[in-house]
Write a structure and sequence with these properties.
This protein is α+β, with helices and mostly antiparallel strands. The protein is 27% helix and 26% strand.
Length: 294
């Protein structure tokens, strides 16, 4: 049977994640994330170097509600010197501990790492090609500005590059994402909303994400008794490369009929993620699954 401890005594739960990036330093960004629901709330602000370093130079966390483990907020200052690469989530988990609302600090740290993959510090002259090169010039800037993008999803695979040359593609990318003005605030802004709604024998799971270049609204309908995913659908109102990122979005349908169990988060990687899939679709789905109990 599928459920969630977050639905004890109620049929609806909602969690909001808000994040933004300030170009606060000559060689680093300040990423700020707030995660909150009706019981817990945290804020994490971290000064981090861009790709390829992804190093945390300074981290400050605070509890926004009285029920939080405030000692955990103090411990997150120890993120200083950590790199936001493999092993970072494990470091977050250790520092956050097991106190009340500790997982909110972990989620905030993971979102900081994700924000770091959305902005770069390239020389301003490097963006000049955007005026005439359009999406193809942006694609080249992406793979220059973020070292871990190649083969992270379909768009940045060789197949994606070939399709970029063969069809009409549009992009909302702007120069300030690659080379923001000194001191610019909120260069990149994101809001995510996770929602669980129980309606009789079905559990509906929603996750939306909207920012400068993404617009996702995904939905899964799960049979509570069997754990089977009865419906899986999404609306993508904005994509970094419309006509290219569009290609793997239909993969969400491959989750219909899957059973929600302890191993599903691993099984969905080849189904919706990887070089043939969409990294955002994988993250949004994985984050929802973390809210469920099996």
């Amino acid at each position: 049977m599928i459920g969630s401890t977050l639905l004890q005594g109620r049929d609806r739960y909602e969690r909001v994640v808000e994040g933004w990036v300030d170009n606060s330093h000559e060689d680093a960004f300040t990423h700020t994330v707030r995660v909150h629901d009706d019981s817990f709330g945290v804020e994490l602000s971290a000064v981090c170097t861009p790709s390829p370093g992804y190093e945390v130079r300074e981290a400050r966390a605070r509890a926004l509600t009285d029920r939080m483990d405030r000692a955990a907020a103090s411990r997150l200052a120890e993120l200083r010197g950590a790199r936001m690469v493999a092993g970072f989530a494990r470091r977050l988990t250790v520092l956050a501990g097991a106190g009340a609302g500790s997982s909110f600090f972990v989620d905030a740290g993971i979102e900081v790492a994700r924000l770091a993959r959305q902005v770069a510090k390239l020389p301003r002259e490097a963006t000049a090609a955007m005026a005439t090169g359009g999406p193809r010039a942006c694609w080249d800037l992406d793979t220059t500005g973020w070292i871990d993008l190649p083969d992270s999803c379909f768009t940045y695979s060789q197949a994606g590059r070939a399709l970029l040359e063969a069809r009409e593609v549009t992009t909302p990318m702007v120069a300030d994402l690659y080379s923001p003005p000194p001191g610019a605030s909120r260069v990149f802004v994101r809001k995510r909303v996770l929602r669980l709604v129980r309606t009789g024998p079905r559990l509906h799971c929603f996750h939306s994400m909207h920012d400068n270049v993404h617009g996702f609204d995904i939905h899964y309908e799960i049979e509570v008794e069997s754990g089977r995913i009865a419906a899986a659908d999404s609306i993508t109102s904005r994509l970094p490369y419309q006509g290219l990122c569009t290609e793997p979005q239909g993969k969400i349908a491959s989750l219909r009929g899957e059973t929600v169990d302890a191993g599903l988060r691993k099984r969905i990687q080849p189904l919706v993620g990887g070089p043939a899939g969409c990294a955002q679709l994988y993250d949004l789905t994985s984050d929802l699954l973390k809210l469920l109990t099996v």
